[in-house]
Amino acid sequence: MALFAARTPTLVAAALVGGALVLSVPTVVSATPRPANATTALTAAHAAQATSRVLVLRRGSHGAEVTRLQRRLHVKASGTFGVLTVAAVKRFQHAHKLAPSGVVNAATWRLLVRFTSPAPTRRYGDRGSWVKVLQKDLRVSPQSGYFGKLTKAAVIRYQKGHRLTPSGVVGGRMWAMLGHGGSIPKVSGPASRSKTRGRTCPVPGSTFTDTYGDPRAGHTHKGVDMFKHRGAAILAIETGTVVRAHWSGSSGGWTITLKGRSGAKFFYAHNDKNLVKAGQHVTIGDKIATMGDTGDAKGNPQLHFEYWPSGKEGAAVNPTPLVRSLC
Question: Is 218 a residue whose pLDDT tops 60?
């Protein structure tokens, strides 16, 4: 975005979403006159920017972005921001002359994407897709996926040419310099919203990121994982009828399928306890289950939420935009 001579930044707004704090990114407002035909585009750009908020992680946060953070900091990737992650964040902040708060805010994210990467450390003898990525970046041929002598020599040349320690090992700083530092995670939409157009947030105050389509064991992710504490209330997203409420097996655990009056269906999985039965009528906002980690959630309380707008079961679309608009 072009910056003009006269400008006034807006104040940064903050809101707490579950275990994560979100901060509004300041909008730059120019005092320089603009052509009339630019007004609509400018207004739309400012509106989009104003709703783009940095995802701030702290102790108690959960989810995919916590897992990525842990990979950056070489902490066991549990997806839960615990004491070990706090300590690792503080070490990083101290090393980069930031106040060691243990909270990953906008300033910390800026340095994380510059100096670290969620990509794995790679060294001589390694194999796999990340080695192929490295070989492509360094123009090593053949791009075999094996980290051999040619690849190591190319890594050392790069490190020497970019004032890095010529170790031959590719860590976070080099990955970031090669363009794999990632981006600062954002949360779009308002931090909290009440019932909207006959629907409400399935788990108010939860933390979530867009992981729809991410690879899973033998399939891709068809929902959004919403994280909060065990026992948190899970609500009926809209008025409708419970199609099923049962134990679905070792994958989903206790699940609920709800058909809304709109004709759409919604799938809730990993519940600790179902509070409704098949055939039961529910009203928007009714508590229908409590959050747990049944099925393959593996000790990480969450709601796996799927959205089937056509009403055809299994015809999932990305539910993240819907959840963001409601939560």
Answer: yes
